[in-house]
Amino acid sequence: MLAQLVRWSRIKSPWVLHLNTGACNACDIEVLASLMPRFDLERFGVQLKGTPRHADVIICTGPVTRQTKDRIIRVYEQVPDPKFVVAVGACAMSGCVYRGMYNVIGGIDQVIPVNAYIPGCPVRPDAFIDGVVKLLGSL
Amino acid sequence: MEEFTVPIGPQHPALKEPISLRMTFDGEVVKHVDVRLGYNHRGMEKMAEERSYIQNLYLTERICGICSHSHTTCFAQGVEKLMEIEPPKRGLYIRTLVAEIERVHSHLLWLGVAGHEAGFDTFFMYTWRDREIVMDILESISGNRVHYAINTFGGVRRDISEAQKQTILDSLGLLKQRTEYYTNIGTTEPTFVARIKGVGKLSKELALSLCAVGPTVRASGIKSDVRKDDPYAVYNEIPFEVCTADTGDVFGRVVVRVNELFECYKMIEFMLKNLPVGDIVVKAPRRVKENEVVSRYEAPRGENLHYIKSNGTDKPERLKVRAPTLANYPATVEMLKGCFIADIPLIFAAIDPCICCAERMVELVNVKNGEASVVSFGDLKKLASEQYKKCGNKPEPVSIAKQLEKIRRKS
Fold first, then answer.
1. Residue B380 contacts A where some CB pair is shorter than 8 Å
2. What is the CATH topology of the domain spanning A2-131?
3. Do B147 and A97 touch (CB under 8 A)?
């Protein structure tokens, strides 16, 4: 009974943290656009939060650069359990065009575990919403 | 009262992108600002040397997502000069058309963010809703919402049909109407104006001496615009005004950007109505003769500068990018000094920072004594090989300053 309630509340309103790990801004503005009136992700209870301590889902955009690596791990550790990581965009998945650059480690999964991957360069808001809904459906 | 230092960023609610600002406060007032960059540095300029020109076109597009067309146009213009080819008129018109539509999207985005930082979220939602109209136009022209990939060497990749022209003109009417409403709010709404007026002052002299660019310098009353000063593409054929304001604060920057929106609409309309007939692209050679070029472009945030050096192969020998945000950092530091803590996000947002654009430079700063040093290539090479030997294949953080000291003592 209690477990059911917890599960329901988790699916009902996941709060997200937007973490830019070295992205080119394209995915970032598309993530923001999907929270805006036209696509309105908030109807699924998704809300953007400023601090990792309030978040359930980390939305990572961009490849991991050497300087942000430690910070990603720190932010990940600050998010309370249960936590989910969504890798948004081709860079977050594999590094995309930045692959092989001296300051780029690769995709987000090189540093922290990832629950969902959303492809695209950049991700369209529709694809992003689809990804979030699929992640919620898998709970 | 004792002064204290607060680090803001790299992950901070007020900043959307990773950058670190170390501020020293005396009570509520900012005394000193230290900008730390490099969180978004990826090593693009180095990578550009290993890729062919046409591959680099897609790489430069991904320097920044908001002004992606600026970087490709700047790069393509430079390479076209090196290749000694001239794109056809229609191609140039479409290129400029996309550039101006991009400016509209970028300025609407910025207006929203400014509203958001001033605590006016309704404004944020409104502008972003209307920005979707612009995104639809861009999508209909290029097939993508953000990375348009419309440029190629010698022209553009997609043509505009008559039907598309009509839809763009129709949606422009709606956009104009909405922008008038924003002008009304942004410049007369008492609560909003009270929040942004007098915040982040930058005098005319300071703006000039610190080499600020774009709307930041134009808001301080200086008519500086690459489109007028050094016309590229077809800007010498299109009638437009350079918008300025003389207040030099965040309010002035709002006024400049809103007025620029109207200029953009005028230019888009002019270009659509006077679109010449003909080809959109000419064939470009694969190899480029040995030469060098500097290409300038007025991005939504200010002057964008690309330096390209070719060596006779199909790859550039050097690509240097100076993005507008980097040019605006010294001015931002001055603006932040003496302001209140609560104004920091607003002032910082007012230059429309684009961190990923600006992450280019290599400079080492000794934190203890504040001594900055630009490392020579030879030193850097020695340092790299020593570090490589030390930790095998896995580079680990080793104190760079200490090693540099060692190298210097030896030599």
1. no
2. Rossmann fold (3.40.50)
3. no
